[in-house]
Amino acid sequence: MAPPTPTPTPTPTLTRRPAGADDGAPRAEEPRRGAFARAVRRNLTAHAFLIGAVLCFGFFSWYPMVREVVLAFQKTENGVVSWAGWSNFVYVFNDPDFALAWRNTALFTVLALLLGFVVPFVIALVLNEFRHARGYLRLLVYLPVMLPPVASVLLFKYSYDPGHGLFNRLLELFGLPAQQWLQSSDTAMLSLVIASTWMNMGGACLIYLAALQTIPGELYEAAELDGAGLLRKIWHVTIPQTRLILSLLFLMQIIATMQVFTEPFLLTGGAGPEGSTTTVVHLIYQYAFNFNNYGAAAALGLVLLVVLAGFSAAYVRLNRAEQE
What angle do CA 272, 287, 309 make, to 5 degrees? Predict the structure, then answer.
């Protein structure tokens, strides 16, 4: 039997494709284009949220600042706005309450630093030594911050009442005479500082406590081996290790206390006895809403802005020079 004859295999023919024809096969550029498109969409979403935040910040923060600068050089008479040059600043500087407001504001800032800067740090040192119920104690310290400021101020106003207030009751228990806390020019400013310290020390305490917990225990052990006592350990170990936080909160507290308004406005009506609690921000409020002189209010606000900005720049520069 003869073997079968093999069938010849057809020779494949190459078909020339016209230029630009697509055979449907994926190319190397397509994955790159898809990744690029996804990155663009992802970044567009992120930038959309960012642009919204920037617009809100600019509208509610930067625009009022720019508007204040413009308003400081304008005056309004019978609904007609015109440029006033430096007349608003001249009016503010010649106001007898100008020096009084700055003096009271400086006094409040100094007293607030003595109490509001030192007391939270001491409380944080004490809380850092507790090993049990630390979370409960942190909540207890931070609780005043969670209360509405107006409610806290009104609570202190009731406690300062000369007839049946809590503070005079405590003084009577110790055999001390009752005080006219808010009615006397000698104690009005101190009363504001006590209320402000109690209201705002919770946040600083938690920040200090977080900084204290980052200090290595080996540093305290080495200090004990060198014979250092409690005060020397705080001075040579605790304060240097928390210097950055102390410096930052010191600057922030000065900026905040120089703009105090809620406490004097609600406790003493703003001016207080013999003008002892008139502050710069309250004087701005008087210019704007009592005298309808928005140009003077903007001028004084601009002066306050320049003073705080200059102090902040000088403070940061000095700290940077010391660190270098």
Answer: 90
Q: How many CB atoms lie within 10 A of CB 59?
A: 10
DSSP annotation of 273 reads G
Token digits of residue 40: 């663009």
Residue type, 103: R
Distance CA 150, CA 245 (A): 29
Q: 285 and 270 in contact (C-beta within 8 Å)?
A: yes
| Nearest residue to 92 via CA among 287, 260, 277, 282 | 287
Answer for the pair 177, 95: CB distance below 8 angstroms, yes or no.
Answer: no
Place of tokens 């003096």: 103
Find, among 284, 291, 119, 282, the residue nearest to 199 by Cα: 119
User: Residue 76 forms beta bridges with which residues?
Assistant: 81
Per-residue pLDDT tens digits for 271-301: 888 888 999 999 999 999 998 889 999 999 9
Q: What residues are paired with 80 via a beta bridge?
A: 77
- Between vectors from CA 126 to CA 122 and to CA 129, what angle results, nearest 5°? 145
CA 188 to chain centre: 26
With beta carbons less than 8 A apart as the criterion, state whether 212 and 242 touch.
yes
Give me the amino acid identity at 121.
F
Q: Tell me if the pTM is above 0.70.
A: yes
Query: How would you class 87 by CB atoms within 10 Å of its CB: exposed for 0-12, middle for 13-18, buried for 19 or more?
Result: middle
Per-residue b or e along 251-284, where b marks 16 or more CB atoms closer than 10 Å to that residue's CB: bebbeebbbbebbbbbbbebbbbebbbbbbbbbb
The dihedral over CA atoms of 154, 147, 140, 142, expressed in degrees to the nearest 10, equals -120
Dihedral sign for Cα atoms in the order 180, 182, 184, 186: positive
The pLDDT tens digits for 47-94 are 788 888 888 888 888 888 888 899 999 887 777 778 888 999 999 999
